[in-house]
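Batch job 17 of 40 flagged for manual review because the log was empty.
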Amino acid sequence: MSTNEAAAEDKLLIETIFDDQKTEAAPFIDPNDPPWGVAQAVLVWFISVAVLLFMQLIAGLPYVIYKAIVTKSTAGLALDPNLIFCSILGVIPAHIVTFLVVWVVVTNRGRRPFWPTLGWSWPKNFGPWKAAGLAVLLLVVGVVITQFVGGKETQLEQIIGSSLKTRFATAFLAVVTAPLVEELTFRGVLYPALQRALGMIWAVVLVSALFAGVHLLQYFNNFGVVAVITMLSVSLTLVRAKTGRLLPSFMMHLVFNGIQAAILIVQPFVGRFAEQKPATGFIISTLSKLFT
């Protein structure tokens, strides 16, 4: 055997070894044709709601026990600022648990990529600036609606007004955890499964209704705010449906909540100025009603 032939055989052997070691490329997963079904998607939604309620109760339990033992009374606990604050903090572990449940379903316990499967990318015709601009437009429309429709003070407004620490905790949740976890649950997992089974129109209707319904407890006595939350829910779901991607909806949700969170933080410090300037006070108080 010649030297050239031996070298060629060695090269072929090396290429064969490396070919065997190569991992097969992950198959493309269409975000609109998810590898989970309606049953799994509905279960994720149900768990997210149940965990949210359960964690808020559990978070406040130690304080209730403390009050019962130390003060020998639980009178007035419903309006206790410390109990309200503990309950708000309970949302953080609830969102963490929900995120983990979504991860398990989407990745099939690590067997599939997480973000690509959800469609976490920008479509060609809908970038971050368009998403942010649409969120601002929705917020402006929301201010107009709440001004003309009016309504009573919402439960969320009462919670925010209970203490400064609760106000800041609510602002933190509205930006850091709520937009991500809610978009993953409603328009990341639930929408594509319903869209495949029922079609786009019914999927948009159902997801929008479920999203608005979850927030109804906070705003039920203010029809104007309920209308705004419903408008936002439909808009976010329509953007998810039309773009086929989840990232635009998340950006819109983040900007919508982020502007209000910033207002919540500065509101106590500009209170006197707002009282002297009625227009400023109206804008700040109105925007602080529209959290999702």
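Reviewer: the log was empty due to a logging misconfiguration, but the result itself is present. Confidence is low (pLDDT under 50) at residues 16-25, 276-285. Unflagging and moving on to job 18.
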